[in-house]
Amino acid sequence: MRSVCFRLHKKFLFLTLLLVAGSLFAQEMGQNQNPEGTPVVVRHEVFSYEAERLIRRLPDGTHHLVISGPMDTYMLGNLRDAMLSKPGVLFSLDLSAVSALFDLDKETLNNCRNLVSLVIPDGLVRIRWQCFLGCDNLTAINATDGNDVFSSSKGILYDKAGSEVVVCPCGWNGAVEIPLAVSSVRSGAFSNCPKVTGFVLETRTEEFERDGKTERRVIENDTFSTSDGILYTKDKKRLVQFPSGKSGRVTIPDTVETIGKESFAYGARVTAVELPASVRTIEKMAFGYCSALETVSIPASVTSIGKQAFVWCTALGSVTIPSSVTYLGSRSFFKSSVSTVTFEDATNWTFGKKILVDLTNPTENAEKFRHPGKYWFLDLYKVPK
After folding, report:
1. What pLDDT, in 10s, does the model give residues 39-63?
2. Among 37, 140, 225, 268, which residue has the fewest nearby CB atoms (within 10 Å)?
3. Distance of alpha carbon 149 from alpha carbon 164, whole angstroms
4. Average predicted confidence (pLDDT) for the chain
5. In this predicted structure, what is the pLDDT of residue 154?
6. Which of 52-61, 249-258, 355-364 has the lowest mean pLDDT?
7. Who wins on pLDDT, 256 or 24?
8. What's the pTM?
9. How is the beta sheet containing 230-233 ordered, strand by strand?
10. Which one is predicted more confidently, 294 or 188?
11. Which pLDDT tens digit goes with each residue over 334-353?
C-alpha cells in the first residue's frame, strides 16, 4: 500500500513539475502566442503517456512543444499521433535537446498537417526521403549550431557546409532563394511543395581596387542558373527543379538535354510539358505524381526514360514512345491514367534483357504498364537490329 501511494505521489509530482516548467518557460517565449495572447509551452524530460495526455488536452491555438531526453522513432510517432488528435492546434516543435534520435524516416512525421515549425535534434544524422510529405503547414525546419550534419537558413535545411539543399518545408510559400554556396540539390528536396512559385539565385556585390580606383563586381552562383523561375545547371543542359506552384503549359528551352530526377515530381498544377529536340534523357520519377499533367511530348531525340517517370500521373492520356528510345524503366506509367502507349518501333524489345516482348498493341501496352501485369515491373531494353 505504501509503495502504491509512493508511485501515485511520484506521478502527481511529475505532472506538477511538468506544468510548472512549462509555465516558467512560457514566460521566456512571448513570440509563441495562442489566440488569447498567452504563450503556452510544454516541456518534459522523458516523453511518456502522461505527456501524450497533456498534449491531447491542450486548448485550440498555437503551442510551442519543447521536448528533451531520450526519444526514438516510435516515441516520435506517438508524439505525432498526439498532435494530430488536436486538429484545432498548430504546433511549433523543438527537438533540439532530444537524445538518441538519429534518423527520421518517411513514416515518422509525414501527414502531420498541424506542424508549423520544427527544430531538429543535435544528434540527428539522417533524414529519409519524404519524411515531411503531407506536412502542408510546415514553413520552417531549423538545425542548431550543435548539429554536425545539418544547417539551416530561413527555414530551409542544408548540409552542414551549406552547399546542398536537403529539404524545403512543404508549406513554403513563394519563391526560394538559392544561396551562393549551394552547388547541389538533394533528390526530393522540393517534393510536395505546392506553393513554391519559382527559384531565384543569390548574388553578392563586392568592391575591389584596380588602377587606384574602387570598382564593383557581381558574384553569382557557379553551379546553377534560372529561367522563368525554373532551376537549371549553369549551362542550362540539365533541368534540376521545376517549381510545383507553377501552373499550365510549360515549354522547356532547347538547350536542355536532361530532365533531372524528380524534377517535376508532385507538380500538381502543370498540365502540359513540351520537351525540345535537344532532350536525350528523362530520369527516374521526373514527372511522378504530376496529377494534372494531361500531355507530354517526347521528342525523337530521347533515348532513355527512367523508372517511374510518369508514375501516378492520373490525368495523362495517350503517350507515344519514339523509335529513338532504347530504355524504358520499370513502372514508368504505374497507377497513371494513360489510355494508350504507342511505340513507333515496337520490334526488338526485351523484357529484362532476356525475353522478347510484343508492344504492337497500344491499348494492351497501357493496361500492362498501369497495373501489375506481364512486364510493368521490369525494365525494357531495345536490342540493336
Report:
1. 455 555 666 777 788 888 888 888 8
2. 37
3. 11
4. 86
5. 95
6. 52-61
7. 256
8. 0.84
9. 224-227, 230-233, 238-241, 258-259, 281-282, 304-305, 327-328, 380-382, 349-351, 355-357
10. 294
11. 999 999 999 999 999 998 77
